[in-house]
Every structure is written in structure tokens, then in C-alpha cells.
Amino acid sequence: MPAPMSTPPSNAGSVASFFSRDRIRFDRNEWAGSFGDIGTDLPLLIGMILAAGLDPASVFIMFGVLQVATGLFYGLPMPMQPLKAMAVIVITQKLSGEILFGGGLAIGIIMLALTITGALGALAKFIPRCVVRGLQFGLGLSLASLALRTYVPALGAEGYALAAAGFLIMVALWGNRRLPAGLFVIGLGLGYALLFKFDAEAVADGMGLALPQVNVPTLDAVLTGLFVLALPQIPLSLGNSVIATRQTIEDLFPQRRVSITRIGTTYSIVNLIVPFFSGVPVCHGCGGLAGHYALGARTGGSVVIYGGMYLIVGLLFSRVSSEVLQVFPLPILGVVLLFEALVLLRFIQDQASSKADLTLALLVALMAFGLPQGYVIGLLIGTAIYYISKRRPLLTHE
After folding, report:
1. What is the pLDDT of residue 10?
2. Is residue 225 part of a domain?
3. Could you tell me the pLDDT band of residue 222, with boundaries at 50, 70 and 90?
């Protein structure tokens, strides 16, 4: 695996430096990396649209706008993702769009309060690194399991052959900046889709310009969304969306300092805006960052490209969005997810010098991976064990 790429801090006072090649590029590596998070985002977006009866144009347009804005603002391959706990609850319980929008507004208010008061930064300092590593490792296990158990077998023998070809390409070209593996793997998937799955006539008939729908969440929707959706989401967001994301940036881009306050601010602001345009609540995430990085991205250009895809689908193809987006073969998405998982799994190596810290990280990972609300449980129990162990050793120290 290539060493993390160091990029110098940007000068926010200069427009030229804001769009410098250190922050924004659109080369072949950025194009390859732009598909690094689609395997987790797309199923959740489509699932929420179907379960809650959301307007596809609003969902895809707002999701695309946020990707573009995040890519430009951070200059890093750090995309926005649907809030996973919220998405799962909405899909499984078939909650209404109004409750989803209310929950998004509620979590935006809560995260803004935590950021402004400094509580978010205090929490980040309090939670030990070995626990963060465990959360990253647990997410890596979850992504690998999804890839190997669900996505790769999706098309039977044909899918296994497609996934094997994609896997061989990734291994053969891993770390090659001149011939980025991700570009060839995604090209393989697109070629398969165009040859065997794409209905050009149906897509052409369904074209038409669409815009987001304006929505004003009611107080009842906000309160219901707070208790049903926002509160279950907050611990996962603290662990994965904020703390683990900041750590992953530090791991992959050690010269690019991004503070907890900055991440919390953008997290909160976007969720204070999107509910009013019928968009789904979103967050940052270490998995998305790792996915874009794994396929070759090193700047915000990959996220801008990624957002542009959703913008085009939402603006022009929202009436046939499911047909357009679901033609991409799941086994190829499985290969992408698997290598995204590998990036996250490797971060635990810096805990190897301490048997106690490594053991605790693995324990947190297993809880995050195997238990309902495992990220919450792992975060709380792992942090408690760490501080109790400082007074009375519970795990073997070297």
C-alpha cells in the first residue's frame, strides 16, 4: 500500500491557492477515486427513497451539491455520506420523509451546540486512540463483510467472475499512479452495465429537468425525529463521522491539519440546510475518505466529480434514477468496498507496540462489528475500560 501522501496546508486567503493542484485536481487518479464511496452511499439513498417516499430529484441534487461543496472546501477526498443509523431506521421502519427531515434538522442543531460550546473537542480528547482504531477496524470488518457476503455473490457465477477480474486488476495496479487501478475496475463495471443492463430507450424517454422541493419541517417532525432518529445517530457520528474521520485525515494526510471544530461545523451546517430542500441527512465518514483514497484520489477533485454524477442524475434523470444507478454491477462495488475496508483495517498497526492497547482496539472492533448499535457500545465500553485500566490493569501490558 502506498505511503500517505503529504500535502502542504492551503492558504485560504488566496483564490489561486484555494484551487491549487494540492487541493483540487481532475486527473485520472481523481476520476478513479471518485467511485470510492458509491458502494455504501447508493444502496442507502435508494433504500430511503423507496421506504420514505422521498423525491428522487431532491435527494440526488442535494447530495451532489454537498459533495461538490465539501470537495472544494476541504481540498481533500472527504465526501459526505448518508447518516447510516438514521438510514437503517428509516428503511426498516418505513418512516416518513417528514420525520427524516425533522431528524436531520435536530441533529444539525445538536452538533452545532456541541461544536460551539467546545464539548465536541473535549470528547475527542477524552476518547483514546486505541478506541478510535477499534472503531475504524470494526467499520472495516463491516465493509468487508458487506462486500464478500452481499455484493460479490449478487450475480451468481457471472458476478464471481466479474469480481475476480476486478480484484486481479486492483492487486496488479495497486499504488500505480500512472495507471490507477480504480479507473480500470470502474471501467470494467461500466462496460458490463452498458453491454448487458442499460436500457438507453427507457432512460431517454425519462429525461427531464427537475429541481429540489422546498420543505419546512414542523415542530412535531423535529421532536419526533430527535427521539427516533437523531439520538440513536449521535454516538455513531461522534465516533465515526467526527473523531475517526479526523484521525483518518491525520493518518493519510499528516501535513493537512483539520480540527474537530471544523469537521463539527460543516457537519452541523449542512444538516441545518438540507432538510429545507428535501435532502437526506448526511455526515463525514472515515470510510468514504478511505474509499476515495484507496482508488487513487488525493485531492477534493474526486469528491467534486462524485457529486457531479449525482447532480446530473438528479437534474436530468430523476424520473428513471433507479434504472440509471442500479445498472452498475454489485460485484464490482464489492471489490471497491473490499479495498476500502483494507485501508481502514491497516490503521490498527500502530497499536501493535502495546499488547493492552491492541487488545482493547480489537475488542472495540468486535463489538462495533457484531452488536446492534455496536459503535455506540464499543465507544462507551472501550473508553471506560481504558480509563479503569489506568488505575487497575484489566488487560495485560507489556
Report:
1. 46
2. yes
3. very high
- What are the tens digits of pLDDT across the range 81-104? 998 878 877 877 788 999 999 999
Q: Which domain holds residue 267?
A: 17-350
- Determine, yes or no, domain membership for 361: no
The x, y and z cell numbers of residue 95, run together, are 418512516
CB-CB neighbours of 190 under 10 Å = 16
* Domains held by the chain: number: 1
Cβ count within 10 A of residue 398: 8
Q: Is residue 286 part of a domain?
A: yes
Greater confidence, 397 or 233?
233
In whole angstroms, give the CA distance from residue 100 to residue 188: 36
- Mean local confidence (pLDDT), 159-173: 92
